[in-house]
Amino acid sequence: MSQLTYGIAAFPSKKIQDIANSYRMRYDPSYSKIPPHITLKESFTADQQTIDRLSKDLSKIAKETEPFDIEIKKVSSFSPITHTIYLKIEPNDTLSKLNEQMNAEGFPGEQAFKFVPHITISQDLSEDEHSDVYGTLKISSFDLKDTIDRFQLLYQLDDGSWTVYETYKLGE
Amino acid sequence: MSQLTYGIAAFPSKKIQDIANSYRMRYDPSYSKIPPHITLKESFTADQQTIDRLSKDLSKIAKETEPFDIEIKKVSSFSPITHTIYLKIEPNDTLSKLNEQMNAEGFPGEQAFKFVPHITISQDLSEDEHSDVYGTLKISSFDLKDTIDRFQLLYQLDDGSWTVYETYKLGE
């Protein structure tokens, strides 16, 4: 059975996506592959049968999770591990729990790093470019609040872009 | 209450999206704004209250519609109205009915042209470019089949790209 590459993400409000895109269009070569998002589960491969099963599990997880608030106050970087700069989501128990549930037994894929909720705004820059951009952005402060009431399962096309497969609404 | 721009579309299988993208990346400047899709309802503006109401109507429409097959055999063009070249979806009663239901009384927005189900693969070329590309593509024949089992409500960001707001599964 043929396998596709899937990922799970939450899209913040249009306002936050527009702010993230104002940076991404300059500093992220993958900008056009997917709208600004919070990754809940890193990409994994699965066949249709597995996805049908996962989809039921994801509906259950969504139903048991109430919509929740997130807050963004500043920019941070994963340097020196990668040159990724991101809008940092303030520590959030619900996001962490969702990430844990989506990596529990029965879910395919593995998480390479500790879960740090974030919205990427810059990646794949050279070391010098990264230093320049991060030097400018890390002194910005933000006061962004949003309510997350859904997440989405997406699959990747051959050109690297992502299409939404299904939406899971929280608390319903 | 602030208004966003929304649209309703169905994404065909990854296979058909990959084929469409192989043309779009060369012939469609808007290629990266949204994955390849069949537009079911042209873009319209609405506030959150209207969307909450529409979403219930769309769930009902989806529930009453069984998954259905589509077929693609050839490329066509909207010339001379626009220079849009597309994968033509063979006449399909279910697609036409969905389009009608989404433009019935109570739904915002208006449809400028008769509904012609299609997947755009080229647009916004000059008249000469359009003639060249269409001359090459119109002699291609395809034998693509797919089953549509869901459609999606999307909203547009400031940069023109689209984010999925919700997925409606047919027959459920």
From TrEMBL, chains A, B:
It is an enzyme of class 3 (hydrolase). One of its GO terms (molecular function) is hydrolase activity, acting on ester bonds. InterPro entries: 2H_phosphoesterase_YjcG-like (IPR050580), Cyclic_Pdiesterase (IPR009097), YjcG (IPR022932). A motif (HXTX 2) lies at residues 118-121. Pfam families: 2_5_RNA_ligase2 (PF13563). Its EC number is 3.1.-.-. The keyword Hydrolase applies. A motif (HXTX 1) lies at residues 37-40. This is Putative phosphoesterase FPQ13_06725. It comes from Allobacillus salarius.
